[in-house]
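Milestone 3.1: sequence recovery, worked example.
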């Protein structure tokens, strides 16, 4: 399990970024990056990776409620491949079909969506060292 992870909610105008801790398995919004110009967003991502030194990157992949590809699915998958290629870090993809519904209502909240994506990954990924259940290890 990665001690530090960054997650991304990729969009045409903005990229939401969240920071996560693999020990506490918690995620929090970190920043919203503007994608104009696109090169500046890659520079900003490189800066965040240098600052936080994540061991894992997570990207939300949008799908329709029935699981079929969304108009942004291919773009997000390509973004995930580009992250992996540029930064040589493992990248996990998370189905984010319901994050927008959770965050309904005003203003850009891309960083909050990224935090939900990362929290979902933590919640769905078994912890490598689970805590013993009550009664285990007792003599």
């Amino acid at each position: 399990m990665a001690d530090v992870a960054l997650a991304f909610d990729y969009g045409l105008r903005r990229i939401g970024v969240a920071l996560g801790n693999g020990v506490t398995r918690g995620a929090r919004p970190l920043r919203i990056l503007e994608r104009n110009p696109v090169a500046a967003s890659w520079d900003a991502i490189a800066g965040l990776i240098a600052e936080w030194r994540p061991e894992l990157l997570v990207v939300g992949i949008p799908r329709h409620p029935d699981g079929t590809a969304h108009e942004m699915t291919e773009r997000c998958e390509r973004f995930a491949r580009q992250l992996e290629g540029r930064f040589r870090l493992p990248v996990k993809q998370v189905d984010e079909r319901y994050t927008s519904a959770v965050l309904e209502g005003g203003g850009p909240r891309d960083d909050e969506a990224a935090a939900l994506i990362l929290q979902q990954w933590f919640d769905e990924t078994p912890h490598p060292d689970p805590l013993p259940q009550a009664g285990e290890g007792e003599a």
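The chain is about 35% helix and 25% strand. Residues 42 and 123 are 28 Å apart (CA to CA).
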